[in-house]
Amino acid sequence: MRTTPSxxxxxxxxxxxxxxEKVRGGDxxxxxxxLLQAHDKLGGSKNLDLCLCLxxxxxxxxTHDSALSWFKRAxxxxxxxxxxxxxxxxxxxxxxxxxxxVEYYRKLVEVEPxxxxxxxxxxxxxxxxxxxRRPRIRGTSCRSGRSRPERSPRLLNSxxxxxxx
Length: 165
Hints:
single chain, mainly alpha, 8 helices, 0% strand, elongated, disordered N terminus
């Protein structure tokens, strides 16, 4: 048996659909206004399309922190959603949050291994796994890797150690 959607749910769905269309059609301000009305009616951001469209709208307005916030909510609802992850990565990148962007671009490569945009960003900004720094061993010189004379146990126990002439 199929239930009939309530007029309120139907109206909220229409707000989301129309808001998304406006955002995609180049009217982010008009779309965001409708989407935020839908958000208020829902009592939160429980709708994936709502979050994605708000993220896209704020991205179009160059309000990158707000866009990132909405895309993060979308990723929280659908962790493997390509659009949500890509949006979060791009918003973080444009907001200058490169550590966060790297995390999302890594997730994007997991979901979409052939994504060249993600791979290019990671090649430029992700130092993990690329030429990792060798751990510095105490008592070694940075350049040669050889022991410093003042730390060498052999020299400390010989007649040539500190305080001996």
